[in-house]
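Retro notes, item 3 of 5
We never archived the inputs for the 2-oxoglutaric acid complex last cycle. Fixing that now. Sequence and ligand:
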Amino acid sequence: MNSTICESTRSDYEKRGFCIKRNALDPERMQEIGMELEATMDRRSGETNVYVNGELHQEKKRPEDMREPHIDEPFWLGLCGEPKILDALEELIGPNLVLLMSHLFVKPPKEGMSIAWHQDIVEWAHISGSNICTVWLALDDVDLENGCMQVIPESHRGSPVIEKMETKGTDYLGRESMISDEQRRSAAPIELKAGEFSIHDAYLVHGSGSNTSQRRRAGYTMRYADPETLQIDPAQHWSPLYLVRGEVDWPAKSYVDARPAAQGAS
Ligand SMILES: O=C(O)CCC(=O)C(=O)O
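Structure as it came back at the time:
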């Protein structure tokens, strides 16, 4: 296991496909985020319909699967526009930033699911572009024991599309990228304190183990792109596209204006 991690610089990010921002959000802000997380988890708990071998079952909703909270909860959209996060992104992918998606991944103690090795870009068949990335904000302290994210450094180089196979396991995705043993051995854990975040390229192979600890592991992923290089079919995309910083060609591209000044004005 390779435990060396890169700092938050553009050259590290380009070389290794990810970087880490330490001491980003302060404890007061994290306390506020923690309270909102509890409220969102309460609102989204309950049962959901699933089909197993063609038969309908009711299952408890998984807290790993709280998708797109930014669409209907202004708090999470506001967090996607957090200046410290956008400043870090701006250095890496440029001054114009579009929010594509977000997802709260909460792994409960002792039973949090693993997430198999995958590349984000391969999961989103209707999206392509050379400058798409994910911010993974730690809402709890995360380490290998509670199932922190792990990455395969440099696996994004050359923008490969790696074939997937079914895991036939109990992981969150049910399919995984076919990577070599050598790549597996090079995995780097992204251990973070609450309030720190990592940024990874959409082609980088990553995943996470199950939570074997007594502690919760919560993270918020926010996915961004540079609108100049982004290619997306809005008809197939399940959420609006939000411009969070900079400029785009209005109104040819239909973005929701979520830049902080626009939000303040409304
Ligand atoms: O939260 C995790 O462990 C994995 C998250 C992930 O796959 C992603 O951010 O793309």
